[in-house]
Amino acid sequence: MSVLLFTVIILIGAFLAGLVGSLTGLGGGVIIIPLLTLALGVDIHYAIGASIVSVIATSSGSAAAYVKEGITNIRIGMFLEIATTISAIFGAVITIYINPGYIAVIFGLILMFSAVMMVRKKVDNSDNVTTSKLGNIFRLNGSYPTAEGVKYYAVHNVVGGFIMMFFAGIISGLLGIGSGALKVLAMDNIMRLPFKVSTTTSNFMMGVTAAASAVVYLHRGQIVPGIAMPVTIGVLCGATVGAKILVRTQTDKLKIIFAIVVVFLALQMIYNGLSGQLS
User: Fold this and answer.
1) What is the pLDDT of residue 276?
2) pLDDT given at position 31
3) Domain boundaries, the chain
4) What's the confidence (pLDDT) of residue 19?
5) What is the mean pLDDT of each run of 10 residues along the chain (279 residues)?
6) How far apart are alpha carbons 135 and 22 in whole angstroms?
7) For labelling, which of 94, 152, 241, 272 has a CA lying 20 to 30 Å from the CA of 45?
8) Burial class of residue 43 in the structure, from the number of CB atoms within 10 Å of its CB (0-12 exposed, 13-18 middle, 19+ buried)
């Protein structure tokens, strides 16, 4: 395969990955890593390195808009990033000590979990008004604008959310994905934030978490410009188009279709990992 054809395939694949990731909230990494490893035969470590760069780019672009709108809780994001950045570096470091086949299996399991999270019914905690002691101490409670005016919310189980973020950071550094499903689970179900706040704050955190682990991959030479550049450009363009479609389209049915695709990719990753084809 020529370099030009290889680049074009990555660009098209990354565009579709960014489009799907934007519509489902999963991020492009869940599609781009299987594309690079299963379809193009790229070493999984280099695929993870390219995915991390795309996570930084897409998170930085979309997070700015949410912060400007006043939905993102920056204090919660910065507080929880203490956990995610430390654990993301740890996750990135241990990748060289784990068999690539095992990494593929872990990736497949996380994909299946993400698919379930994608189609589950969201719990709206917008009427959440009681608070926790730690939430008051760290001043994590906040508000966000709605059509009916400003809504205030409180934070619960700060310790539980912080612990969950350690796990999310390890997975992010190990697999090169934003771990959005795990971050939203921590803030939505454990800390009981309104889902708009949890999803936008998760998006805000993804870039910082990915940047921490990217340093490790860059130091090891596992971020290759020839792969990372078309991946980043494609994912950014796809995410931009997806954001515009999302405003005008009901995506419930699309999410079910995409969930089936993600499960299929997950099974492929698990099979290839167990069979030793990615070793």
Assistant:
1) 82
2) 83
3) 3-274
4) 81
5) 90 87 70 89 93 84 76 92 95 93 92 82 62 84 86 90 93 87 83 84 86 93 94 88 68 74 89 83
6) 31
7) 241
8) middle
Note the pLDDT of residue 44.
92
User: Residue 34 corresponds to which tokens in the numbers above?
Assistant: 């299987």
From 270, 253, 265, 268, select the one nearest 118 (Cα to Cα).
253
DSSP states of the chain:
--HHHHHHHHHHHHHHHHHHHHHHSS-THHHHHHIIIIIS---HHHHHHHHHHHHHHHHHHHHHHHHHHT-S-HHHHHHHHHHHHHHHHHHHHHGGGS-HHHHHHHHHHHHHHHHHHHHSPPP--TT-----HHHHHTT--EEEEETTEEEEE----HHHHHHHHHHHHHHHHHHSS--HHHHHIIIIIIS---HHHHHHHHHHHHHHHHHHHHHHHHHTT---HHHHHHHHHHHHHHHHHHHHHHHHS--HHHHHHHHHHHHHHHHHHHHHHHTTTT-
Q: Going by C-beta distance under 8 Å and a sequence separation of 6 or more, which residues neighbour residue 147?
A: none
Backbone phi, psi, residue 150, to 5°: -75, 130
Q: Per residue, what are the HEC states of 67-84?
A: HHHCCCCHHHHHHHHHHH
Residue with tokens 């005016």: 149
Assigned token pair, 80: 């929880």
Q: In sequence order, what are the residues at sequence separation of 6 or more whose Cβ sits closer than 8 angstroms to the Cβ of residue 53?
A: 210, 214, 223, 228, 231, 232
Task: Give the C-alpha separation, 154 to 131, whole Å.
Answer: 5
Contact 161, 80 (CB under 8 A): yes
What the block records as the tokens of 266 is 């997950």
